[in-house]
Write a structure and sequence with these properties.
The chain is built from 1 helix and 8 strands; from the N terminus they run αββββββββ.
Length: about 150
């Protein structure tokens, strides 16, 4: 038989455990890669710039999941251009035959906030990335001509 004096510490312990679990699970979810699926760690961010003024219009972010060996990429317009940029695009490739794009080549989608996430298994390979967007008559794109985060 459980008495009230035994029940109160048990209820308090269960409440404390629940609170602790909710706090510890919030941290990894925030650090896991934003819009990529759970378990993705941020690797790097690449500027999207125009040719004329080298102005930054957004970023392509690259993530990696060590347990699956997959990379994830997302292209985002800078916050001031959310909803105003157009034709936002992201691609991720192994530099050979495997490439994933958002939007796909056959799509008529016109993104105004971000493109992606796109996923590709690149364990022990280089990630070849490309991101672009249009704003104010200019095209902004990544200037990464070689594979990144190889291995």
């Amino acid at each position: 038989m459980i008495t009230r004096t035994k029940m109160i510490p048990a209820v308090l312990a269960a409440s404390a455990l629940t609170a602790a679990l909710s706090v510890t699970t919030a941290g990894p979810a925030l650090a896991s890669g934003g819009s990529c699926a759970s378990g993705y760690n941020f690797l790097d961010s690449y500027k999207l710039t125009n040719n004329v003024e080298n102005e930054i219009g957004g970023y392509l972010s690259l993530y990696y999941n060590p347990s699956t060996g997959k990379n994830c990429a997302i292209t985002r317009a800078k916050a001031a251009w959310d909803g105003k940029a157009s034709q936002i695009y992201v691609s991720l490739s192994d530099g050979d035959a495997h490439i994933v794009r958002d939007p796909s080549l056959s799509s008529n989608a016109n993104y105004h906030y971000y493109a992606g996430p796109v996923y590709l298994a690149l364990k022990n390979k280089c990630a070849y990335i490309h991101g672009s967007l249009h704003y104010g008559g200019d095209v902004y794109y990544t200037r990464v001509d070689t594979g990144v985060h190889c291995g």
